[in-house]
Design goal:
Number of domains: 2
GO molecular function, one term: peroxidase activity
Structural class: alpha+beta
Organism: Streptomyces solicathayae
Pfam families: OsmC
InterPro entries: KH_dom-like_a/b, OsmC/Ohr_fam, OsmC/Ohrsf
CATH architecture of the largest domain: 2-Layer Sandwich
Number of strands: 7
Mean pLDDT: 94
Strand content: 25-35%
Order of helices and strands: EEEHEEHHEE
CATH topology of the largest domain: GMP Synthetase, Chain A, domain 3
Helix content: 25-40%
Strand order of the largest sheet: 1-2-3
Oligomer: single chain
EC number: 1.11.1.-
Number of helices: 3
Radius of gyration: 18 Å
Length: 146
């Protein structure tokens, strides 16, 4: 049994839909394909996963600091070392800290550090890498890396 499972099905040329077992779905397409819009590119989904994971974890790690207005912006901010990869990723936590709480900035920074050092599965996986295995319809492995 897998820890996480997403099914991605082809809806047309360069158009896909990803679904989870709870019924949620997201459209995936090429950014330069007007017919596939609105959709996310695969890299945008990776960045969205980092922002979403960071937000869910910050809700726990920084719960002592009011952060209802928090906005998390995730950007690919540099070119890759080789083709077919994303370069440096920047995760920006944007909000106004609560007025009158002298320790809010320190508490929030600690929450963000814990998020990325220990608890955000997506950020930690991207940072450290993971093994990838591509399995063909006959069950044989076409690729294994990482």
């Amino acid at each position: 049994m897998a820890d996480y499972r997403i099914e991605t099905v082809r809806d047309g040329f360069r158009r896909w839909t990803a679904r989870n077992d709870r019924g949620a779905e997201v459209r995936i397409g090429a950014a330069d394909d007007d017919g596939a819009q609105p959709s996310f590119t695969p890299v945008e989904l990776l960045l969205a996963a980092m922002g979403g994971c960071g937000g869910l974890v910050v809700d726990r790690t920084a719960r002592t600091v009011e952060h209802d207005g928090l906005r998390i912006v995730v950007e690919s901010v540099s070119g890759p070392e080789d083709e077919g990869r994303v370069g440096r990723i920047r995760v920006s936590y944007e909000m106004e800290l609560p007025a009158g709480d002298e320790q809010a900035a320190e508490k929030f920074a600690r929450g963000v550090r814990l998020t990325h050092e220990r608890y955000c599965t997506v950020s930690r996986t991207v940072e450290h890498g993971t093994a990838v295995e591509a399995v063909l319809p006959d069950g044989t492995t076409a690729f294994e890396g990482g």
